[in-house]
């Protein structure tokens, strides 16, 4: 049985939880209630924060970002994150479960079109331009009112406002998209990533995934190089490294146990793999992370 290395927060466990599958709050009072969430943890729900005031840092899957006013942070279930704020911090927070939109949207994969829901930490932080800042604040104020007033159809109005928010933020990256990508290739890449998420512990070679996708390894590699600018093998290795980091920061897990969970034949092979990918041994990474957090 695989041990979970971080506290996993369920949306129903939150003290101010009032409505099924959704929580909307100003960030300052939310932070005051949930000071314990400043330590590294995971959610089983989607977590959105829009900062309007404050400074410090937010770390998502071991990628550190400087917190600034008018920044969005999007996190999907399972990502590891923690805060390190400086002084007063405020804004808005929205937590919603995967079920919240299930009966509302016919497309089960609707959110997969938005890069900030990809699970890639570097795509999860978005700065809002000055021209949009007032509109974003107004939208969040509407979300708060609908959440608090509980008028007829309030939850559906919340869903509509959130979809409006996601589309508006998604458009921010549209002018920078240079490549015209076919729907087939996007679907193929999504299928590859989904297969990695399910099988990264046991399947570590591109040819194994290519076989499951009914394409050649060369086709899969060309796809990843074209859309992601990295090879298919690197996509797989990056996911293994991320999981290794998540496991390593749990002091209760030994290196040998972690190597076993990730299906490495022995501790030595795992150590060589990890050092080649990160520049640090597993023990060095563990010490560095614990030192940074203390």
Automatic annotation (TrEMBL):
<dbReference type="InterPro" id="IPR009057">
    <property type="entry name" value="Homeodomain-like_sf"/>
</dbReference>
<keyword id="KW-0804">Transcription</keyword>
<feature type="domain" description="HTH araC/xylS-type">
    <location>
        <begin position="190"/>
        <end position="288"/>
    </location>
</feature>
<dbReference type="InterPro" id="IPR018060">
    <property type="entry name" value="HTH_AraC"/>
</dbReference>
<dbReference type="Pfam" id="PF02311">
    <property type="entry name" value="AraC_binding"/>
</dbReference>
<dbReference type="InterPro" id="IPR020449">
    <property type="entry name" value="Tscrpt_reg_AraC-type_HTH"/>
</dbReference>
<keyword id="KW-0805">Transcription regulation</keyword>
<dbReference type="InterPro" id="IPR014710">
    <property type="entry name" value="RmlC-like_jellyroll"/>
</dbReference>
<dbReference type="GO" id="GO:0003700">
    <property type="term" value="F:DNA-binding transcription factor activity"/>
</dbReference>
<keyword id="KW-0238">DNA-binding</keyword>
<dbReference type="Pfam" id="PF12833">
    <property type="entry name" value="HTH_18"/>
</dbReference>
<dbReference type="GO" id="GO:0043565">
    <property type="term" value="F:sequence-specific DNA binding"/>
</dbReference>
<protein>
    <submittedName>
        <fullName>AraC-type DNA-binding protein</fullName>
    </submittedName>
</protein>
<dbReference type="InterPro" id="IPR003313">
    <property type="entry name" value="AraC-bd"/>
</dbReference>
<dbReference type="InterPro" id="IPR037923">
    <property type="entry name" value="HTH-like"/>
</dbReference>
């Amino acid at each position: 049985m695989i041990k979970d290395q971080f506290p996993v927060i369920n949306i129903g466990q939150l003290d101010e939880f009032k409505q099924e599958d959704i929580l909307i709050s100003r960030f300052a009072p939310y932070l005051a209630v949930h000071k314990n969430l400043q330590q590294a943890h995971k959610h089983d729900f989607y977590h959105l924060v829009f900062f309007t005031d404050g400074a410090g840092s937010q770390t998502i899957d071991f990628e550190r970002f400087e917190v600034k006013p008018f920044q969005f942070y999007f996190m999907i279930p399972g990502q590891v994150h923690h805060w390190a704020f400086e002084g007063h911090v405020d804004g808005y927070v929205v937590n919603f479960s995967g079920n919240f939109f299930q009966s509302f949207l016919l497309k089960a994969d609707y959110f997969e079109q938005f890069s900030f829901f990809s699970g890639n930490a570097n795509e999860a932080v978005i700065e809002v331009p000055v021209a949009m800042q007032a509109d974003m604040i107004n939208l969040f104020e509407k979300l708060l009112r609908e959440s608090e007033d509980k008028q007829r159809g309030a939850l559906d109005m919340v869903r509509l406002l959130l979809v409006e928010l996601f589309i508006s933020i998604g458009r921010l990256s549209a002018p920078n998209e240079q490549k015209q990508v076919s729907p087939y290739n996007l679907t193929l890449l999504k299928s590859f990533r989904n297969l990695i998420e399910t099988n990264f512990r046991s399947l570590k070679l591109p040819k194994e995934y290519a076989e499951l996708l009914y394409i050649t390894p060369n086709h899969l590699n060309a796809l990843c190089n074209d859309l992601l600018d990295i090879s298919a093998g690197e996509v797989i290795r990056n996911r293994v490294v991320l999981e290794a980091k998540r496991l390593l920061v749990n002091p209760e897990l030994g290196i040998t146990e972690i190597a076993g969970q990730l299906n490495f034949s022995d501790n030595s092979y795992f150590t060589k793999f990890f050092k080649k990918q990160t520049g640090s041994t597993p023990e060095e990474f563990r010490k560095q992370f614990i030192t940074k957090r203390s």
